[in-house]
Structure prediction request, 193 residues.
Amino acid sequence: MASLDLLIFYGSVRRDRQGIKAARFIVSECAARGHRTTLVDPVEEQLPLLDRMYKEYPKGEAPEVLERLAGKIKAADAFIIVSGEYNHSIPPALSNLLDHFLEEYFWRPSAIVCYSAGAFGGVRAAMQLRAMLCELGTPSIPSLLPIPRVQDTFDDDGRPRDESYHKRAARFLDELEWYANALKTARQSGVPY
Prediction:
């Protein structure tokens, strides 16, 4: 299968965040499959709270961070969202990050890696995220990659302590690759508007 440009959004800005381990794991799994991956981390990007979306700035007048991220989003073939579960919902930093953009996501699939400190693996947040991603124009693939007890599942570098995570990630990424390649081919013929 052809190499894809994958943009991986991570959503937590907490000081002792554990989900970064899951983000590192999925970045590594994608790179091992030959994909070009970029991790977008709100701690590094330091986006302001949403006041204006990227598209609301006159051309060439958006802040540099928005211009840079918009270029990365437009160049991506697919998106992977790595989300924790905060009060049965998605982290506010993730929502803020995603909401700065809209048309830049269109006609490309997304996939959700969700995690929690408990047994449910963040699936309640993933259901809300699924609706949001569809509204942003990047519908998520049917499968999720839920990670319960994220604090114990990976080491600090994102290496899983249970080797079965490699197989789970492979099935998840097989599905994302199928959708990404199908939509990439379709985009070459044009989009509805």
